[in-house]
Amino acid sequence: MPFIKRILEKVSLMLNITLLLSIIIFSILPLIFLLFASFIPNNLLDNGLKITDLKYFTFANYKSNFISNEFQRPLFNTIFISVLSASFTIITTSLFCFSISRYAKKFSSIINITIITGYLLSPVILVIPYTYFLTKLGINGTLFGLILSNSAFCFPFAYYLMYGFVNILPRTYDIAAILDGASDWQLFWYIALPNILPGLVTVFMFSFILSWNDIALASVLSDSSSKTLVIWLKEQVLDVEISQYGMYAAFSNMIAFLVILIFGYSQSWLIKQLNTHA
Fold first, then answer.
1. Of 4, 207, 221, 260, whose CB has the highest number of CB atoms within 10 Å?
2. What are phi and psi of 222, to 5 degrees?
3. d(CA 93, CA 98)
């Protein structure tokens, strides 16, 4: 029995290692391909990607994307939508969380459960109501329509993050400010906001990343003038020839670079703030 048990333990260990390596390989290989292919001339990819092709290292694929007029418009749209969506989200969530935390405390549990339930919904399910309301408002297919829909989709998760930051503010701050004659707006602007700055930054970052990477809403709610980088890349890849993979690999890296840079640079700070306040 001990002998069989040891064999089973070794087999289990080997299976776990094999599974882990498989996951790592299939997760990393696409990234390696994107990185290498983006620096290889397009014509060399016809015969497959080889390590020896690195001697033809070039930035031509990145340069082609930067000077392309087709790339510049989706880039502007994506930055514009992501920044304004994240900004609108932190404004609405900070005001709403402060109101619930201070003036509707006894209903906070019900409100929290209701809002968090909304985050469980897939964005695909929300496409139909979003399309209906945006059409009625006359902004379907516009940048502002995408900003509004992205902000609405980000709101439940942003609320979940922000509420933790607002709710831990000591009530003594409020009492002291009220005794000094502060209004509700002054209480929010001068007392709450400076103390929830980490929450504002956290919510902005997550909302920005969600809007930057959005494809479900943008694929339905955008048109030719409001398409984002992800949508433009999807359209190009559907008709791409093998000789263009280098250019689109460079394009994919450029899409991911900004998000990786932001999140990677502030990762340790962000995790610390989430553990402290959430």
1. 207
2. -110, 160
3. 8
Alpha helices in the chain (DSSP H): 2-38, 60-67, 69-103, 108-119, 123-137, 143-167, 171-179, 184-186, 193-195, 197-212, 218-221, 229-238, 245-265, 267-277
- What tokens appear for 183 in the block? 């209004």
What does the alpha-carbon distance between residue 230 and residue 193 come to, in Å, rounded to a whole number? 34
Average pLDDT score, the chain: 78
Top pLDDT among 72 and 79 is at 79
In whole angstroms, what is the distance from residue 60 CA to residue 156 CA?
42
pLDDT beyond 60 at 278:
no
Q: Residue 24 is encoded by which pair of tokens? A: 């790592």
Report which secondary-structure segment, H or E, holds 222.
none
Contact 250, 38 (CB under 8 A): yes
Q: Is the pTM of this model over 0.90?
A: no
pLDDT of residue 5: 66
* Contact between residue 206 and residue 198 where contact means Cβ atoms under 8 Å apart: no
61 contacts 250 by C-beta, under 8 angstroms? yes
